[in-house]
Amino acid sequence: MRQQVVSQTGVGSSTIIPMNLDTSPFNVGFGVVLTGSATYTVQHTFDNPWTTDNPTWFNHPTILNQTANADGNYAFPVAAFKIAVTANSGTATLTVIQAGIA
Asked: pLDDT of 47-66, one tens digit each?
């Protein structure tokens, strides 16, 4: 998969980045770059982002309430993910790369 990049400025959630569930291994790496001051969390869903109006979002276990640049991964399938800024007015930019797709 080509790099996918979304940003969120101020409190709120970015647009979602859907994943390809047919890729094996699923492996996804991501990084968040923070500009200014903000608190953010990376979130994922198991709901189909194309057919579910209000997906249930879960917080990444380690990229939670972060206030600096951070990176992480998903070794097991999730349907989509996003970044949520929960405090302050900075910008959090999420870059995602999924293995196995050119």
From this structure: 998 899 999 999 999 999 99
